[in-house]
Design brief:
Distance between the termini: 21 Å
Organism: Falsiruegeria mediterranea M17
Shape: globular
Structural class: alpha+beta
Strand content: over 45%
Largest sheet: 5 strands, antiparallel
InterPro entries: WGR_dom_sf, WGR_domain, YehF/YfeS-like_WGR
Order of helices and strands: EEEEHE
Low-confidence stretches: none
Radius of gyration: 14 Å
Number of strands: 5
Protein name: WGR domain-containing protein
Mean pLDDT: 88
Length: about 80
């Protein structure tokens, strides 16, 4: 499960992204990965939090999505890369 959020403010010259994803590790643990940074920049910040179950990871993702949406981010459809 993956959600991409973006916030673009032309007045303040800001263009930011935030990607939230839930995945399972090779050892059966579930993790919530958060990536954020400026759109078009080469580097951003990546953080991984390990959760005891998939339900906990999805709940944390939804909570984070709601918080980011309240602060001005909008969900963007995730596009698949071309072959």
């Amino acid at each position: 499960m993956q959600i991409r959020l973006e916030r673009i403010n032309h007045v303040k010259r800001q263009s930011r992204y935030y990607v939230l994803s839930v995945s399972e590790t090779l050892f059966g643990e579930w993790c919530l990965t958060q990536e954020s940074g400026s759109i078009g920049a080469n580097a951003g910040i990546k953080r991984t939090d390990y959760m005891p179950s998939r339900a906990d990871a999805v709940q944390a993702l939804l909570t984070m999505k709601d918080a980011k949406t309240r602060s001005g981010y909008a969900p963007i459809p995730v596009q698949l890369p071309l072959l």
